[in-house]
Design goal:
- By secondary structure, the chain is of the alpha/beta class.
- The protein folds into three domains: 10-97, Rossmann fold; 105-324, UDP-N-acetylmuramoyl-L-alanine:D-glutamate ligase (3-Layer(aba) Sandwich), CATH 3.40.1190.10; 334-478, Protein-Tyrosine Phosphatase, Chain A.
- The chain contains 15 helices and 23 strands.
- The strands form five sheets. It has a seven-stranded mixed beta sheet with strand order 8-7-9-6-12-13-14. It has a six-stranded mixed beta sheet with strand order 18-19-23-20-21-22, sandwiched between helices. The protein has a five-stranded parallel beta sheet with strand order 3-2-1-4-5, sandwiched between helices.
- It is globular.
- The model has no long low-confidence stretch (mean pLDDT 90).
Amino acid sequence: MANPLKDLKHVHIIGVGGTLMGAFAAFLKRAGIRVTGTDNKIYPPMSDILEKAGIEVYTGYNSENIFQFKEKPDWIVVGNVITPKNVEAQFAINQGYRYTSLPEFMEKVMLKNTRNIVVSGTHGKTTTSCMLAHVLNQCGKNPNYFIGGVSQDLPHSFHVSSLEHSVPFVIEGDEYDTAFWDKVPKFNHYLPDDVILTSVEYDHADIYPDMSAVIRAFDGLVSRVRPGGRMIVCVDYPPIPDLVMKSRAPVITYSAKNNGNARFAPANVRVGETTTFDVMENGKKRESLEIGVPGEHNVLNALAVWIQTQEMGIPSADVRAALKSFKGVKRRQEVRGEIKGITVIDDFAHHPTAVRETVKALKQKYSGRRLVVVFEPRSATSRRKVFQKAYAESFEDMGLVFIAKPYDQSTITSNDQFSSDQLVDDINKRGVKAQVMKPVAEGGVEQVAASLKSGDVVAVLSNGGFDGFIGKLLDQLKS
């Protein structure tokens, strides 16, 4: 099959600092294509990845960023964070440049003839995608993959070995919308053959008005599975059983509960430095697995990967060894440093369920040590009050909790704004010590550092740069 990228000379990316967009930019650069991009402030690890890849990055959006090129780029790829008011995107559109979104580029240029495994769900899709790509890689399948996170096991987040149908293409299937002119989920463009569906809960309150809208989005994914494919789904989330009843593809079910409501389930889960569990099929033991990442949520991620690989006919012993070697994903329970006996962990958790499962896993792994949690409400949903009460239940039995003020709420009506003060009050009422954290630039780092002592584990939960909080905290602890 001909290489669909061979005729491309130059791609310009508007919004290059996003995890997906940055990984895509680095991939194009490795393919020998000139890549330029623009964004506002870019934080590690993506800033480091772009610099290492040799991407030409311009700070700030300006029509001159495009106009300066002597020849028009082959494509202008516009990130989904870009709004219709973006001057650079409007210049490209109004001046007749060929523009597209990343998911649409994937659909048109790369995915038509590949065997696409789309990993989707409200939680766990990044870790499960990384885990699956790692296992397939370790088992000699040399997969293609496109993942919205930075793996600790894979050299890149976007890799193409071959666009032949025989080579699997692992894709993280995000339900967030595609672009300002294309308000459908990204996964609508990914042409799935197989789907792993980890979970469905309410999220992305900025684009989904209610749970029924979320369900309709995932219903579109179910309907898009191509002939010959399959669905591997976790039935622990109420919408999923009804969703997959509409599937024309075979459905394989798994669950956290070994109670007969799913074909596969874990049993005898033991969480420590590593996590071990038995795989049960219809109540009978099939396998024992060990993974290097903690948490019962990662048990389910590993179970989904194991099911997928068994369906692909990969020897179980090879899969078992590969799962054991999995190190994880950056910003998912990632240890950023240990200073004076204090361990500092970076995690992306922002949904109440993800926060609850993450801190639960850390308490199990670091049993006997005080867990201090620093949470920044930064996502579009967490900055709104939709989960105001639910968050209080996510911080059970913590040593100490700091809640930062929400990230920019200027576009959210006052009646819909999340309140850090209210959450702190609710957490304290549940018997857990909590306080509002000062802004990073106004003493927040010093506030947190002053409360820490040797033996503490500090979990910093934010889905953004958090004004460089972790790096500044580590520097403060060294002083």
